[in-house]
Design a protein that fits this description.
The protein is α+β, with helices and mostly antiparallel strands. The protein contains 4 helices and 12 strands. Strand 3 and strand 4 form a beta hairpin. The termini are far apart.
């Protein structure tokens, strides 16, 4: 072992250097450039506005909690999510800052999850809580009517950590701050809820204006 390697090892042991965590994406996967006749934006060209930077979640210990106004609370593992019916579609993400990107999203619809949990009468809104402390909410009627999904693949590769592994909400027709990343908990409620940006003055509906 050379002197440099010994020095780095010393720093790691002393806690002076943060160890790099392995990204979730499989480097052997080939990203799609086109889907359903549409050109896709490469992942490396997609911007990422996160309140605390990229989160790294271990898929072996991850669970998605589903609570609130449901008949049965759920704790779904990553493998259990993959076993649910698959949704696969082209959706554009638009940011309020004026940029956006086109992508292929693959994942599980919230309808599939709610079919397993059941919903109590009077449920109106769904809150999405994320690993970094971020949160947002969307109307239950919108989520069900548009068959909105939680994606675990992007452009046909495993969702990278910087894009929200293991799950990113694909809030079609809503601005990017509704596209919650690193989702860990879903709560169904009959009450309105203002998330991170909404409590700072952003619209709680966030419908994308026609370009």
């Amino acid at each position: 072992m050379n002197i440099f390697k010994i020095f780095v090892l010393f720093l790691l042991v002393c806690g002076c250097v943060e160890q790099q965590q392995t990204p979730a994406a499989n480097v052997s996967e080939k990203e799609d450039a086109f889907f359903d006749g549409m050109e896709l934006t490469s992942i490396k060209e997609q911007r990422n506005n996160a309140i605390k930077g990229t989160q790294f979640i271990n898929k072996e210990t991850y669970t998605l909690q589903v609570t609130g106004m449901v008949n049965r609370s759920l704790n779904l593992t990553y493998e259990e999510l993959l076993a649910l019916p698959v949704a696969d579609r082209f959706v554009r993400m638009d940011c309020v800052e004026g940029w956006g990107f086109d992508a292929r999203w693959t994942g599980v619809t919230l309808n599939s999850i709610f079919n397993d949990s059941g919903l109590k009468p009077g449920a109106k809104n769904v809150i999405f809580y994320c690993d970094d402390g971020y949160s947002t909410s969307l109307e239950l009627d919108y989520l069900r009517g548009k068959d909105i999904m939680l994606a675990y693949r992007l452009n046909n590769v495993t969702l990278p950590s910087e894009r929200g592994f293991p799950l990113q909400l694909v809030a079609e027709g809503r601005y990017g701050y509704k596209w919650a990343k690193w989702v860990t908990h879903i709560e169904v409620t009959d009450q309105p809820y203002e998330g991170f940006w909404e409590s700072r003055g952003y619209s709680n509906i966030a419908i994308v204006r026609e370009r």
